[in-house]
Amino acid sequence: MQIHPHFDLIIRNGTLYDGTGAPAQRADVGIVGDTIAAIGDLTNATTARTLDAMNRYVTPGFIDIHTHSDETVFLNPLMESAIQQGVTTEVTGNCGRSAAPLSGAARETMLRDIAPYENLTLDWQTMDEYLARVERARLATNYVTFVGQGTLRACVLGYTRRPPTPDELTQMQRLLAQAMDAGAWGVSTGLIYPPSSFAETEELVALSRIAAERGGVYTSHIRNEGDRLLQAVDEALTIGERAQIRVQLSHHKAAGKRNWGKVNQSIAKIEAARARGIHVCADQYPYVASSTGLGTVIPDWAYEGGWEQLAARLRDPVTRQRITDEIRAARPGWENPATDSGWHNILIVGCKSERALQGKTVWQIAELRGTDPVEASCDLLLANDGAVQVVIFSMSEDDVRTVLRVPWISVGSDSSARAPTGPLAQAQCHPRTYGTFPRLLGKYVREEKVLTWELAIAKMTSAPARMLGLERRGEVRVGYFADLVVFDPATIVDTATFTEPHQFPRGIDYVLVNGALALDHGKPTEARAGRVLRKK
User: The domain that contains 8 carries what CATH number?
Assistant: First the structure.
């Protein structure tokens, strides 16, 4: 008599996309514990539970390669906005900023950032302590982090605007090595954000070599995504070539109307680098608007010494005049969203001092106050200790589609996990927080057919897993971890908008993280089976 295997859970009758880009197949998926144990016809197998995936697609869990949930994970361990769009692994520590290591000015900045949140205590310093703290929080998703080069700089140099001394560079390298030995996956830069922006190429190469020795990745919000996009791409490629490190270009785009179409040149440049042996990829969110802090309109020299010094400069009439004159003059080579995209395209979404201003553009606020947008921006920054979040409409839809079609460009939301209730719902946010992955599948695959299902799913799963070097994730394969998504291809869609962003998508039935159901019949569970994935 034939003995049939017993599973903890079987997903039956689904159309399986394994994440590799291969064509779909009809197959059941059997799970034992946290692992995919069988794929195929499991009709005769016994199971503790069956999920019926008839008329549904079964795929690997989505890997969000670019997020900023570094400290918000402690406020929202259920990671609702991520889980509800099929994300099973979040990658944080991007754009030059990470939650560890923390000392000196880096610690002071973090204390200021978390001050609005009650019951969030800064009780870690090293990367090992931070990751242990995340493990104790028991997240619903898996968790990966980079080390922020801006954070390293703040630890050692504070907000000093100069190259490091040899001893200071050695200290940064030592901190980076310790953080990677504790489990971080590489180093990130945010080269429009002080103090990351204070670094010159030589410093970035020196740090990247430390990450490369440990098999890490250099990921970068490059120095310019507007007029000097191509030069900024060149710098990232140079760093990759000189440090012999894999390079991930963050949220690839061309910002500002006069730069639309330039992504064709940047993609060609990257393709040429790949052809000559540089391991470089990129990521993208499928929207025509970005999101950042309003402080990006301020010239970076004004940040020297940190926020307190900037605030003092904004209060001093003479220095403030110099700052506002520079904002209006639009210095060549400086990526300034105000001049690149226009004040009428900068939407305030996070403003603690005056929540009623959320949903208004800087131009509208200036008109309401009887001033000009430059002065209004300086006043808003002073009233909010520099923490004003904005959405900037700066890209073209044609460029979004162009970038989407590139197989080696994966998907990253550039957001932090949130929920429609609680402390993280007080501010508005970019709709990508809730809608990135369903939007790509619903709008750009099903409706507009910009991508095939196979390619789109690979860009969300195996592509980021391979770039990072995640073991046994990103594909539906026997022996791999059971991070899985089951969704309806006919109905999957994002519902979050720029005016009402805190809205979950539709069409996702089940999400499994390490074999546990985090989303069941479209409803979140209390499962918190995510793991901190430490680089070995």
Answer: 2.30.40.10
Peptide bond into 77 cis (omega under 30): no
Alpha helix stretches (DSSP H) within 330-431: 337-341, 362-369, 373-383, 397-404
Q: How many CB atoms lie within 10 A of CB 279?
A: 15
Are 205 and 351 within one domain? no
Arithmetic mean of pLDDT over the chain: 96
Q: Which tokens hold the place of 146? A: 């980079």
Q: Is the pTM of this model over 0.85?
A: yes
Give the CA count within 13 Å in the CB-facing half-sphere of 231: 10
CA-to-CA separations, 452 to 16, 24, 49, 192, in angstroms, rounded: 14, 11, 32, 34
Continuous segment of H or E residues that includes residue 6: strand 6-7
Taking the C-alpha atoms of residue 108 and residue 305, their distance in angstroms, rounded to an integer, is: 12
Mean pLDDT of 266-285: 98
CA distances to 44, 45, 87 from 3, rounded to whole Å, are 10, 9, 36
CATH label of the domain that carries residue 193? 3.20.20.140
- Of 10-14, 282-286, 333-337, least confident by mean pLDDT is 333-337
Closest CA to 267 of 295, 298, 233: 233
Sign of CA dihedral 435, 438, 441, 447: negative
Q: In angstroms, rounded to a whole number, what is the distance separating the alpha carbons of residues 238 and 233?
A: 9
pLDDT tens digits, 98-119:
999 999 999 999 999 999 888 8
Q: What is the mean pLDDT of residues 422-441?
A: 94
Spell out the alpha helix ranges (H) of 290-428.
307-315, 317-329, 337-341, 362-369, 373-383, 397-404
Give the type of residue at 126: T
CA count, 13 A, side-chain hemisphere, 507? 23
Instruction: Supply 322's token pair.
Output: 């110099």
Distance (Å, rounded) from C-alpha 235 to C-alpha 225?
Answer: 12
* pLDDT tens for each residue of 25-69: 999 999 999 999 999 999 999 999 999 999 999 999 999 999 999
Same domain, 51 and 75: no
Structural domain boundaries enclosing 514:
1-60+476-489+506-523
For residues 104-124, one letter each, b for 16 or more C-beta atoms within 10 angstroms of the residue's C-beta and e for the rest, the string is ebbbbbbeebbeeeeeeebeb
212 contacts: CB under 8 Å, gap ≥ 6:
218, 243, 244, 245
